[in-house]
TrEMBL record:
Keyword tRNA processing found: no
Gene Ontology terms for molecular function: protein transmembrane transporter activity
Species annotation: Mauremys mutica (yellowpond turtle)
Subunit structure of this chain's protein: Component of the TIM23 complex, at least composed of TIM23, TIM17, TIM50 and TIM21.
Family indicated by similarity: Belongs to the Tim17/Tim22/Tim23 family.
Name the UniProt record assigns to this protein: Mitochondrial import inner membrane translocase subunit TIM23
Amino acid sequence: MSPLSPYLNVDPRYLIQDTDEFILPTGANKTRGRFELAFFTIGGCCMTGAAFGALNGLRLGLKETHSMAWSKPRNVQILNMVTRQGALWANTLGSLALLYSAFGVIIEKTRGAEDDLNTVAAGTMTGMLYKCTGRLRR
């Protein structure tokens, strides 16, 4: 029998495990579906849009206030441009991602298949819905 550990006061043989005994959630061996990936897509697009919008707002704010001296009004005007552009881009990209994900999930459930045709159809339908701001042309 091996000596007991003076630090743990347990037999070290109990600490060695030869098998993989992990608790996995049900269905963990399966790949994630389109619905589960929708949340990542929408959140990622919102954060990416906010970052690009903030950079664009900083560029526009510096360009618009280049003749002003560094002061509180100039700083406030630049911050206003950064937050306004960041929110605008985040909303735009987030709504596009929401449309794309919703169309993708609907098409997948309707067809009952996961393939590239769903992706192409979801992207096409998103573009068509996003760009049809008016009525049909004659």
